[in-house]
Design goal:
The protein is an alpha+beta fold. The chain has 5 helices and 14 strands.
Length: 281
């Protein structure tokens, strides 16, 4: 494969050019994609997209697209938590979604997202892992949640949280008969499958500090130029978690604006999911 020795220099020049252009956009309270600094991109959720999975969804935030599939498998519980099942999310950011990524082991970004995703779901109380217990000390459900980014245009973590929550709302588990003495297991196929009980709907919204301004729902280009990021998780109209990385302190007034925007997205996502659950009944 031939590599142009000037390509790296050209990329740096283009990046510098974009950074110098952004202040001009932001001074007019407008971004290159036409949004104002506080505007969120359109959101779309498709439920039950993968028929071979026990629960699934596809989420689009602007051009960013994440698909989630959940497979339920039987497993023994941890000895220290004999009544607790497992929720194991894994996010894959493949080379197909952006030229930024290369084939090989999972990127550090994907690994951090996977750990943070598990924390966001479990810390919000969305899923009670004890509901996944079949027989205490013997048998539980393990939910393997595979998320694949098909198109990366910023806020992949936000899309992943929504995709996993939506997929969990479509999840159904077969009824089981288990003999704890002999470990015989029987799937009661004639009985209706059981939906998982969910107690809350966490929704995450990200913001980027760019040229001294805070922009909501940044694109991949804006994320690359940002000096700092803020992630806000709202759970049932209540502030659940705030994380800020890098940069200078953010004024309380600006932070309040971020929370207000995050509340708007959470409200729309919660309405979409509740409508889906109502229509499914």
């Amino acid at each position: 494969m031939c590599v142009n020795p000037n390509s790296h220099s050209r990329d740096l020049q283009e990046g510098a050019s974009k950074y110098t252009m952004y202040p001009d956009h932001l001074e007019s309270n407008i971004r290159p994609d036409g949004r104002e600094v506080g505007d969120l991109r359109p959101l779309a959720i498709n439920f039950g997209s993968i028929t071979s999975a026990d629960g699934s969804s596809i989420v689009k935030i602007g051009n960013t697209t994440v698909v989630c599939g959940i497979k339920a498998e039987l497993a023994p519980p941890k000895p220290v938590e004999p009544e607790t099942g497992f929720l194991v999310p894994n996010i894959e950011i493949s080379p197909l979604c952006s030229p930024k990524y290369r084939p090989g082991p999972p990127s550090e970004e994907a690994q951090v997202y996977s750990c943070s995703l598990a924390d966001a779901i479990l810390n919000s109380g969305c899923v009670n892992l004890k509901d996944l217990c079949i027989t205490k000390e013997k048998l539980v459900w393990a939910l393997y949640c595979d998320l694949v980014c098909l198109d990366h245009d910023g806020c992949v973590f936000d899309a992943s949280v929504i995709a996993l929550v939506a997929a969990l709302h479509t999840l159904t588990l077969p009824r089981m008969r288990h003999n704890a003495d002999t470990d015989e297991r029987e799937v009661l196929e004639e009985e209706p499958r059981e939906a998982l009980t969910l107690s809350s709907i966490p929704v995450t919204t990200s913001f980027a500090v760019l040229c001294g301004r805070i922009v909501a729902d940044p694109t991949a280009e804006e994320e690359a130029l940002a000096t700092s990021t803020i992630t806000i998780t709202i759970c049932d109209a209540t502030l659940s978690y705030i994380n800020k990385s890098g940069g200078d302190p953010v004024e309380q007034e600006l932070l309040d604006q971020c929370i207000e925007n995050a509340l708007k997205r959470e409200k729309s996502v919660r309405a979409l999911i509740k409508t889906m659950v109502k229509n499914k009944k």
